[in-house]
Design goal:
single chain; 150 residues; mainly alpha; 2 domains; 8 helices
């Protein structure tokens, strides 16, 4: 930009000194500069909208889901705080469906968890191989005295 301004100034002074009586014709330094800037900003705003709108929609959807189903929000928050893995969360949801309870109830009630874990149809719903995982999740939830103090 500085070089362009210096070149323009030197061209103007040379033209003025060479023929003071002739018409002075100014060269176009950057033809279409304003249009090029406008097109650039249109592209930038288009990409910003493409990136931003889905994020806003997802945020609003999550906010509405949590408002409509507070027990789900409580389950996710408590499971995250207790350090349950996604597989453990699925297991707790399966156990809750066996006794027709909310999953958050199994996280806070030892009695509800034990009732779901000892249900006769649990092996069909969760699989026989999940017995060790059921014991590990129970230990993580109820055998530690300071689970929420961390």
């Amino acid at each position: 930009m500085v070089n362009d301004a210096r070149q323009l100034l030197s061209m103007l002074s040379a033209a003025a000194l060479a023929s003071p009586s002739s018409d002075l014709v100014l060269p176009a330094v950057h033809p279409g500069t304003r249009e090029a800037d406008t097109a650039t900003w249109v592209w930038i705003m288009g990409f910003a909208l493409l990136a931003g709108v889905p994020g806003v929609v997802a945020g609003v959807a999550r906010w509405r889901l949590e408002r409509l189903r507070p027990e789900e929000a409580a389950f996710r928050s408590l499971a995250r705080r207790l350090g349950l893995s996604p597989a453990d969360r699925v297991l707790v949801r399966k156990l809750a469906s066996i006794i027709e309870a909310k999953p958050v109830a199994l996280l806070i009630s030892e009695t509800a968890f034990d009732r779901a874990a000892s249900a006769p149809c649990r092996a069909e719903a969760t699989g026989e191989t999940d017995e060790n995982r059921v014991r590990m999740v129970r230990a993580r939830l109820f055998e530690s005295t300071d689970t929420l103090s961390a």
